[in-house]
Amino acid sequence: MAAITASMVAELRAKTDAPMMECKKALTEADGDMAKAEEILRVKLGTKAGKAASRVTAEGVIAAHIDGNTGAMVEVNCETDFVTKNEMFLAMAQAAARLAAGNNPADVAALAALPYEQDGYGPTLEGVRAGLIGKIGENMSLRRFVRKAGGGRLASYLHGTRIGVLVEYEGDEAAARDVAMHVAAMKPVALTSGDVPAELIERERAVATAKAQESGKPADIATKMIEGAVQKYLKEVSLFNQPFVKNDKQTVEQMLKEKGTKVLGFTLYVVGEGIEKKADDFAAEVAAQVAAAQGKA
Predict the structure, then answer these.
(1) Residues 6+ apart with CB under 8 A from 209
(2) Per-residue confidence (pLDDT) for residue 17, from 0 to 100
(3) Nearest-angstrom CA–CA distance, 57 and 15
(4) What is the pLDDT of residue 293?
(5) β 140-148/70-78 pair status
(6) Residue 265's closest CA among 132, 115, 146, 140?
(7) How far apart (Å, rounded) are the C-alpha atoms in residues 294 and 51?
(8) Long-range CB contacts for residues 130-137, cutoff 8 Å, separation at least 24
(9) Which of 50, 86, 109, 249 could be joined to 6 by an S-S link, Cβ 3.0–4.6 Å?
(10) CB atoms inside a 10 Å sphere around CB 114
(11) Is 168:70 a contact under the CB 8 Å cutoff?
(12) DSSP assignment letter at 118
């Protein structure tokens, strides 16, 4: 018998929107086979699970909560921008950040299982989420969170509700907040050039190589062009090498040194980043409805 983990249950729930206990039962019956478990749920719940899974939650909000040297930032998604203004939805997002900071859940499934009541729903955060889906009439999901504790001090910056930054630092709080704002604006991918992920570097190198080949330059010059492009890219995407947004005459690293501050790390969340949004085709939808009506006639 395969071990059924919380992450497996969360994955199946994300695909089907079925209740967690039903997901666990289906996975147990399917001996951990995700595809088979999904089919079991479709049989038990009819077409409801499939319909819910097709409703993409690419909108949403970022929320953060800091208590001393412990803090968390979460992304909570919904289907439309309209719901991101809803007070109940915003309260749930803020509660998720507070719960993540205070309880150190292992993953999103563990966060969803934490005790929480709101607007007559509960007794867990998941229960509130499910209740608000029914009340507001729109799919919602707890997408991701990051928690920091036991290291340096923490600063956060929220650009509206769509971009959030959590910075771990030592030193001046104002400087750390400025860095958080800078990260939101300039979107670096790493602290230093040496921290940039290898796959990003290779992707940039491939683009530079293609451009060098098109130039028709001799091999030695082409090699220098490629390396120059890669080094330029590394400076552009590493936080410490970027020109500081409040004073482009100095880099972020120079500003921090001037303020006697050290940034240990940062996390940047942008709502919906990496989620493929559904492109609504109104004409196609009307045509489908007409065809369906004619088929019934």
Answers:
(1) 226
(2) 64
(3) 12
(4) 53
(5) antiparallel
(6) 146
(7) 23
(8) 130/19, 132/88, 132/89, 132/92, 135/88, 136/83, 136/86, 136/88, 136/89
(9) 109
(10) 18
(11) no
(12) B
Closest among 110, 103, 102 to 144, alpha carbons compared: 110
pLDDT of residue 211: 87
CA nearest 90: which of 162, 6, 38?
Answer: 162
Cα(147)–Cα(65) distance, rounded to whole angstroms? Answer: 10
pLDDT attached to residue 35: 83
Compute CA 30 distance to the chain's CA centroid, rounded to the nearest angstrom.
30
Beta carbons of 141 and 14 less than 8 angstroms apart: yes
Rounded to 10°, the helix 34-45/6-16 angle is 50
pLDDT, tens digit (0-9, with 9 covering 90-100), for 134-148: 888 888 999 999 999
Q: What are the residue ranges in the chain where pLDDT is below 50?
A: 46-50, 52-53, 280-282, 285, 296-297
Residue 121, SS3 per DSSP: strand
DSSP notation for 38-90: HHHHHHHHTTHHHHHHTS---EEEEEEEEETTEEEEEEEEESSGGGGG-HHHH
Instruction: Provide the residue type at 169 as one letter.
Output: Y
How does pLDDT run across 10-47, given as a tens digit for each residue? 777 766 667 777 788 888 998 988 888 887 776 665 44
